[in-house]
Amino acid sequence: MKPQLSMENWKENKVVHEGVWGRIYNHATFNSKSYSDIKFEWLSLFSFEVGNKTTFNYILDGNVTSGDLDKYVTDKNKYIQNRLDEYVTPTTDLILDLGSGWGRQSIQLAFNNPNYKILAGELSDSGRKVTDYFKNKYDLPIETFSFNWHEYQSLIDLLSSRNYKEIVILTSNTIEQIPYIKEELFTDLLALPIDKISTIHIEPVKFQYDGIEFPLANHYNRNLKEVLDSLESKKLIEITKIVPKYWGHNLNKTAQNNILIEWKKLS
């Protein structure tokens, strides 16, 4: 039997994030007239999110590094962009950012890659409102939709209604909040008539690959490796890359367990 886990109930998760991202939205709209440059506005809002820190300690390729806000953001963007560059081609229909929060990643990808078409799925209304605020103000190639990891049929229905042939999926510290992710989400996704699906996960599940005791708070994921291994054993996917500590946003236990996992749909 699975243990009773805090935030297993998605409604509790939603309430928490409505408050967190609502604060971000209020700050963005209150200060909107102060900005006309998207990169500066995005950077200022990110600085607000992290408490206006001036020094950051974080992980790159297993090594501890440090820097100011500009260096941190540049490094993070580079490490995400490098992975997308491996999969995004001129024929890619869509970048799918699942668990997009306030749009931190989607917005930055959009203004750095105006040719991208980005679909940002987020549980919280306030998170989507922040993304839409940037999208509307700066005419970004982003579409938001309500996405729930536990009740994911809206994602399948949305993708089913469109003629996508090649998509790239990104999750960055979002599956971490789903203690037990459903394998059916992946099998339903893979059953869609999308010829090419490439997926990039950066999630704190390194302990699952190390085979050690669960080291994190109860609401963190416990079964992503098990699900991906099962999909690979069924010849539905091929896991193409695993890099422990590829990127960690700080030095805490969660970041120490971040691992890059990439896979692609098999024909």
Query: How is the main sheet built?
Result: 7 strands, mixed
What is the number of strand segments?
A: 10
How many separate helices? Answer: 10
Number of domains: 1
Q: Tell me the β content.
A: 15-25%
Structure class: alpha/beta
Strand order of the largest sheet: 5-4-3-6-7-10-8
CATH topology, by name, is: Rossmann fold
Helix amount: 40-55%
The CATH superfamily is Vaccinia Virus protein VP39
Give the termini separation: 35 Å
Low-confidence stretches: 1-7
**Can you tell me the CATH architecture?**
3-Layer(aba) Sandwich
- Please state the overall shape, judged from the principal axes of the Cα atoms: globular
Averaged pLDDT: 95
What Rg do the Cα atoms give?
Answer: 18 Å
Element pattern in H and E:
HHEEHEHEHEHEHEHHEEHE
The level-1 CATH class: Alpha Beta
Task: List its traits.
alpha/beta; seven-stranded mixed sheet; 267 residues; 10 helices; Rossmann fold; three-stranded antiparallel sheet; 40% helix
Describe the secondary-structure layout.
Blueprint: H1 10-30, H2 38-49, E1 56-60, E2 63-67, H3 69-85, E3 94-98, H4 104-112, E4 118-122, H5 125-138, E5 142-146, H6 153-160, E6 166-172, H7 183-190, E7 196-203, H8 206-210, H9 224-233, E8 237-244, E9 247-248, H10 253-256, E10 259-265
Parallel strand pairs: 3-4, 3-6, 4-5, 6-7
Antiparallel strand pairs: 1-2, 1-9, 7-10, 8-10
